[in-house]
Every structure is written in C-alpha cells, then in structure tokens.
C-alpha cells in the first residue's frame, strides 16, 4: 500500500495575528496557531542597539520585530511565516 506524503514549504505571509490557512496534511482550512520567535533581524538589531544606540532596543519589545510562525492547530504543521523587522 502506497503512502502519500505532502511536502511543502511554508508560505510567506503578512499577518502577525492568527489567520485562515489551508493545511495540506489535514486537507482543511484552519485558523492558525501562532508563535513569535526572535529571528536574525531581531538579534542584529539587539547587538547594534546595545553597542551604538540604546533607545533602538525599545523596538525589540514590539511584535513586529519578531518572526511570526503560523501552525496548523490540528497536526502542528508549519503553514506560513511572517518575518519581522528588516
């Protein structure tokens, strides 16, 4: 018996908030579960802010400075990414 494997890379989105995305594994549209993580841009801004311009670090508290990953709430697949900052 053959098993069908869905291999897809996450798409790029503009949403920092949960949104409707199609999950190819579940074959259904869900409102995504999000996680915000510190990406490369966050760390670069942090280092430059600490070394040269300390008030720049205030921006790092905003959600827009972090990467937002959208996951399927049912199976946990990564569906979309919103890269923050730069």
Task: Supply database-style keywords.
membrane, alpha+beta, about 90 residues, four-stranded mixed sheet, LITAF domain-containing protein, elongated, 1 helix
The number of helical runs is: 1
Structural class: alpha+beta
Radius of gyration: 16 Å
**Spatial arrangement of strands, main beta sheet:** 1-6-5-4
| Low-pLDDT segments, ≥5 res | none
**How much helical structure, as a percent, in the residues?**
10-25%
Strands, total number: 6
What form results from the Cα inertia axes? elongated
- How far apart are the first and last residues' alpha carbons, in Å? 47 Å
How many strands, what sense, and barrel or not for the largest sheet? 4 strands, mixed
How many structural domains does the protein architecture include? 1
Written as H for each helix and E for each strand, in order along the chain, the element string is: EEEEHEE
Tell me the strand percentage band. 25-35%
Mean pLDDT: 80
């Amino acid at each position: 018996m053959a098993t069908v494997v869905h291999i897809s890379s996450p798409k790029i989105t503009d949403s920092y908030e949960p949104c409707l995305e199609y999950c190819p594994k579940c074959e259904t549209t869900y409102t995504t579960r999000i996680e915000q993580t510190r990406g490369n841009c966050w760390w670069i801004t942090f280092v430059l802010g600490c070394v040269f311009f300390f008030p720049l670090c205030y921006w790092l508290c905003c959600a827009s400075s972090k990467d937002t990953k959208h996951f399927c709430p049912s199976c946990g697949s990564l569906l979309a990414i919103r890269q923050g900052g730069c």
